Each structure stands twice: as C-alpha cells, then as structure tokens.
From TrEMBL:
Protein's name according to its UniProt entry: MerR family transcriptional regulator
Pfam family membership, one: MerR_1
Domain of life: Bacteria
UniProt keyword annotations, A-Z: DNA-binding
Lineage, top ranks: Bacteria, Bacillati, Bacillota, Bacilli, Lactobacillales
Length: 148
C-alpha cells in the first residue's frame, strides 16, 4: 500500500513542504506518481528518505546528496563510488565530533569557572586556565566577596 506525502511527513518528521522541495531538487526520483499525479511512497522510499535525512544532518549539501541519489539510481556499477562518498562523509562527521568535543570542553570549563565565580561573589577571586580545561579552578579566599 503506497503512502501519501502527508503520511510520509508524519512518519519521517519532515514537513510536506520539505518533501516537495527535496523532490523538486531531484533527491527523490525514485518516488512514483499515481495517474492523477500524486506522489506514492513505498517503505523502500521511506528508507531512502531516512538516508537523505541522515546525510543532510551530517552537513552534506543537497547538491552532493543529489549526486549520491543519481549514483544510487544507476545501480551496482556505482557501488565503489558510493562507498567512497560514505567514507568521506564519515571522516567529515568524525572531524565535526572532534571540533564539537573541543567546544564542549570549553563550555565545561566555563561552567566550572562561573560556578566558582558565583560562589566567590566575583570573577576576580577565581583563577584557572581556559587552555588547560582539565586543570582545577581555584578561588582566592582573600578576594572572595564577603556576604552579610
């Protein structure tokens, strides 16, 4: 039983607008149309849409995804090329994760720093090295703001 675009939107979490946009951009040439022109999606189409969503979520540009879809439509003759695309995207995601971990380390440090500053009542009493986020945050007791 084919799915309507509305049903696919509910199943995938994508809006009908996004699905139509992806179709216009050539990302879903595999979707058949009824005699009246309505898109008719299959479970296999849903799997492919999930892959498109994954690739988009990893930062791949729509033009690159379209090239991948075109290769997939050509069949097994393009297996090696598609594998290489996945390997490249895998490396890109690993680099994103590494950069995100650096950002998270910086945020963790800042949370510890500002927690200590709130406890001390001033930033002036707090010392630490943002470039060495694992180092302890130290509160200089002499600079602590005395509270009544």
């Amino acid at each position: 039983m084919p799915y309507s675009i509305g049903q696919v939107a509910k199943k995938t979490g994508l809006s009908t607008y996004t699905l139509r946009y992806y179709d216009r951009k050539g990302l879903m040439p595999f979707v058949k149309r009824s005699p009246s022109g309505r898109r008719e999606f299959t479970d296999k189409n849903l799997d492919f849409i999930d892959l498109i969503t994954c690739l988009k979520g990893t930062g791949m540009q729509l033009s690159e995804i379209r090239k991948f879809v075109e290769l997939a439509m050509q069949g097994d003759a393009t297996l090696t090329t598609r594998l290489n695309i996945f390997k490249q995207q895998q490396e890109a995601v690993k680099a994103q994760i590494k950069q995100s971990q650096k950002f998270l380390d910086k945020l963790d440090y800042k949370v510890r720093f500002y927690t200590a500053a709130c406890e001390a009542g001033t930033e002036t009493a707090v010392s630490g090295n943002c470039d060495l986020p694992d180092q302890p945050i130290v509160i200089n007791e002499q600079l602590r703001v005395k509270r009544a």
